[in-house]
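Incident log, structure service

09:12 report received: a user says their structure output differs between two submissions of the same chain.
09:20 pulled the input from the user's history:
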Amino acid sequence: MPTSSLILTTSRHASNRVGSRLTQAVLKTALWPRTLRVPHTNGTALCATRAFFSSPSATSLRQYTTSSLAVKNEKSNVNQAPALAATAVQEDSMPGVPSQKEQHEKRISEIKDAKLIFNQAFKNVQDIHGRENMRFPKEIIWLMGAPGSGKGTHTPAILHSRGITNPPISMSSLLSTPECKELINKGLMISDGKVVENLMHALLDCEPEVGVLVDGFPRSEVQVECLKLFHERMHELRKEFKHTPLKDFFPRPTFRICVLYVDEEISVSRQVMRGRMIKEHNAQVLRSGKGEIKEERVTDNDEMLIRARYQIFKDHYSCLLKLSKIFPFHLINAVGSIDSVMRIILKEFEYQSSLELEHDTYEAISHIPLATKIGIHARQDLIRRLEHYCETESEIFGKAVRFIDQEVSPMIARHAISGQALVRSDNTILSDVKIVEVIISILSERGYAVTMDERVHETPKRVDPETWEIILERTHVYALNVRFPQHHIQPLEQKF
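09:34 re-ran on a clean worker, output below:
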């Protein structure tokens, strides 16, 4: 039997609970790619190869995605994503699956463990750097995705959309240190505490002002809880240093969860194709002696291992759903072309003041309408105003039309080539706010962009002989700036 194959031969009808726990234990403790054989309680052998760290699927929670999820217009199966977490509901009714009470108790235990793990990891890092130097990036994007979803391909687009210049943090790179490799070689798991500790060290090495992207975290229930605790700890640091000279180094944290999704079949086909292309490239390099050899992933050459990776992603996805109720959750359709996926990413990560401004600042200015929203109903309001004045206040409407005919239209005709006309008038009807509103509405309906300015000119007329006060005469001058499409005249070219 090839060592790269993953064969799970367990009985589904007898001793399911024990078999399920043994399966999880093997996947958590086995070394890849060495094949392990664990005795089953009913005499069946359980063979497995380790490809990735795995975590048991969590109880299904309601899925939340951002309203700007534009995947409906793309040809994809992204709507299958909620089913990734729904499998937990189906398993509840199967024999051998833990009851809701057992799952609840397990959940409480995981939360307690996460607090202990995080607090110890944070203390270890703080002892090295000092509490006043625990300055983490304000914005952190936590990127997860199905195998073959293009995380590496689309990471530059995400960084560009958010203006992030810090290099992305890859958890797989953080866990490839000599210390971590030594643990793996001894057949030991890298603890969640060590993972969190290494991650915080990497975050402290970043420039905190421009944010950072973390690829591959969180991947388990405990890590999800640690992420929540990390967000709370950053708020605690901000509150602690708020009234000190260091307050600018502890801004309000902004966490975003981003998941790139493709269905299982596309994931498999992409990884197989990637493995084939790398093999062909390396063969060409060996023949020609030009170029660099690329790393060949074992998981790109074995379909069963690829599907095992996707199953792990499904488990991780159900964990991530717990964060969708707390942080912005971006589910990106990664099935389409690179350009189409990039457009979705740029739309998802547009500037959002409610997420990035301090709460007090946002509350102070949020009542001011957005420029992008102000004109949505402007056309309907324009029509309503014109119909109202024409039907109920025909006198005002007539005065406005006559003013346009007599003073505005001639000036527009005179400056037709330039695309802009400045109309100055001392006509007293412009002191009436209603008439001005009708004039601007009529010109707007005809396609002109109009702004109006009122100025008061003071002219000395006489001097009071008793008080020697200079008596001024005030005149109101109204200026209408009318803009319209400019007409370009192509100059005649003389050819000799």
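09:41 both user submissions now match this output. Likely a transient worker issue. Closing.
09:42 reviewer note: Residues 378-483 form a domain with the Translation Initiation Factor IF3 fold (CATH 3.30.110). The first strand starts at residue 35 and ends at 39.
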